[in-house]
Amino acid sequence: MAHVDSDCIFCKIVAGEIPCAKVFESETCMAFLDIAPVNEGHALVLPKGHYPTLMDIPVEMGSDLLQALSVVGKAVMEATGADGLNLMQNNYEAAGQLVHHAHYHLIPRFSDDGLRLWEQTPYKDPDEMNRLAAKIVKLVK
């Protein structure tokens, strides 16, 4: 059985101690509607075990999570009539993670919803990008 954190709200939801609007459940994953949605139909998909961030989720769970994200994503789009779907996953508070149990946001999007993603800016110096890429490559294990 996967680790459970008794202080974690998502672990309590998985255990049935806190109610949710569940939309999917498998042996390893669960999905439910977010109580404060960006758009109606905004769902959270998470591993049932307690893993604080994406980097803590065992690689072996990848297939189960991808299956859940695909199935729930398709259902959310169809149920809401969405024109698109954002998949978001935040790690650590600096990135906007509020609950320290790894989870993915499936956010239905509509052509006229007015939501904007963050702005992007190109590297000022292509050598800077290449230096950073080389540094990352050395750290990839």
From TrEMBL:
Keyword field: Hydrolase
Listed GO MF terms: hydrolase activity
Gene3D superfamilies attached to this UniProt entry: HIT-like
Domain HIT: from-to ranges: 9-116
Keyword Membrane tagged: no
CDD domains, per the entry: HINT_subgroup
Sequence motif Histidine triad motif, residues: 101-105
Entry keyword Cell inner membrane: no
Lineage top rank: taxon: Bacteria
Pfam family, any one: HIT
InterPro entries assigned: HINT, Histidine_triad_HIT, HIT-like, HIT-like_sf
Protein's recorded name: Hydrolase
